[in-house]
Amino acid sequence: MSEKKRDFIRFAMFVLPALGIYSLFFAYPIARGFFYSFTYWEGFGDIPRFNGLTNYIDLFKDDLIHIALKNNLIISVVVIIVQNVLALSFAILLNQKMKGHMFFRAIIFFPVLLSSAVIGYIWDYIYSPLEGVLHTVFSGLGYLSAAEINWLGDPTYALFSICAVIIWQYTGYSMVIYIAGLQTIPKDLYEAAEIDGAGSWKKFTHITIPLLASSFTINMMISVIGCLKLFDQVYLLTQGGPAHQTEVFGTLIYSIAFKSQQLGYGTALAMALTFLILVISSTQYYFMSKREVEY
């Protein structure tokens, strides 16, 4: 046997198991889901019946989908701006060799490690209008009107309350990415800028920000994709309520497919969401990657 064939066999031995697992658990379900999206199917025990583009046409007529799209976009904008501003601020502060910087990094990153169930329990207690942490704090400070707010039950506050949970949970993750980016910036650049008389703000805007472009790209893409496929936090805290005011694509897909037993329609919505994420993330990467610089 030739050396080339032996190399190919060794390559296949490593690649084929991973490819098989990927095909079984990812590629095949996606392909089947794409097929079911063109059918009327009520689930187990029912035979999928082909209905062409009916499911996709109905998506454009469904008012709940319009609400979910609006909510997903609002969450995306709020979370991306606030989370990345906080994460970058923490990263710059904790990248310094200050006393206890590793401890504070761990504290900020800790929420990332918690399960969705724990996150839901913690914030459901914090937001409780009767005995929650916010109720107790505002009552103690004398702000009785704020203490009486139903943070998850009032449509005015519910969506932004969920945004706060997401920001709290994932700011640490974004911070770590920014810290990794900051540590790759050569110190010589800052020293040269100081010699030229540049102050802190000029060093930040002319060195730090441009050289963190790749970190911005990664964090923005992760944030957008995460916000568009959001499910856990919304389902555990509000289940899309009150009156669908916090409905997002994830909870709506679950409700349509498993509560209403419209698996064909629910799968069509899931496929549409996948396409939306692909388009937005690809466009985002195309434009943001152009800002990346090499040094």
UniProtKB/TrEMBL annotation:
Where in or outside the cell it occurs: the entry states: Cell membrane
Question: Which positions make up the signal peptide?
Answer: none
Q: Which residues form the ABC transmembrane type-1 domain?
A: 69-286
Any idea what this protein is called? Sugar ABC transporter permease
Q: Which family does it belong to?
A: Belongs to the binding-protein-dependent transport system permease family.
Q: Where are the transmembrane segments?
A: 12-31, 73-95, 102-123, 157-180, 211-231, 263-287
Q: What do the Gene Ontology cellular component annotations say?
A: plasma membrane
